[in-house]
Specification:
The protein is mainly alpha-helical and about 160 residues long. The protein is about 65% helix and about 10% strand. The chain has one domain: Winged helix-like DNA-binding domain superfamily/Winged helix DNA-binding domain (Arc Repressor Mutant, subunit A), CATH 1.10.10. The chain has 6 helices and 3 strands; from the N terminus they run ααβααββαα. Helix 1 crosses helix 5 and helix 2 crosses helix 5.
Length: about 160
């Protein structure tokens, strides 16, 4: 109970708030652009990207939820909405009666293929065009190190 709070120094607070502001602005702008041009929400896009990154475009619900850092209920509701639009289907797991897979459909593949060039161009315009290759390498190193640490602490 008597632990001392390790308050942020002014430099740490500035760096943290700048990072959070960057993330919020980039995510918001990318989300609006993708939605306006492709009719996919940022969450739809994230699900479809994850599914196209795995063999056969299928992933267990729990693994997809973990990759996206989503709660079980959010995952279930969002996948149901995407399935209703024909972007994904839910398949029961034959090895585990309680488990299920999320599988990308042809319509889902077509949607992500149409949205991906828009996304890439927006990422370049909003972010990559404003950093140097050296800064990009440093950012990648920092991001990978922090993500590794976060992954270690997952219970």
């Amino acid at each position: 109970m008597g632990e001392t709070v390790r308050w942020l120094t002014p430099e740490e607070q500035h760096a943290w708030r700048s990072f959070v502001r960057l993330h919020e602005k980039l995510w918001g702008r990318l989300s609006r652009l993708i939605q306006a041009e492709s009719k996919l929400s940022a969450a739809d896009f994230a699900v479809l990207v994850n599914l196209t990154d795995v063999p056969e475009g299928r992933q267990r619900y729990q693994d997809l939820a973990r990759a996206l850092e989503w709660e079980k209920s959010r995952m279930s509701h969002h996948i149901a909405r995407m399935a209703g639009r024909g972007l994904v289907v839910r398949e029961e797991c034959p090895d585990d009666g309680r488990g299920a897979f999320v599988v990308i459909t042809e319509a889902g593949r077509a949607a992500i293929e149409a949205a991906a060039p828009l996304h890439v161009e927006a990422v370049r315009e909003l972010f990559l065009d404003h950093v140097t290759p050296a800064e990009l390498r440093v950012l990648a190193d920092i991001s990978e190190r922090v993500v590794r640490k976060l992954d270690e602490s997952v219970s």
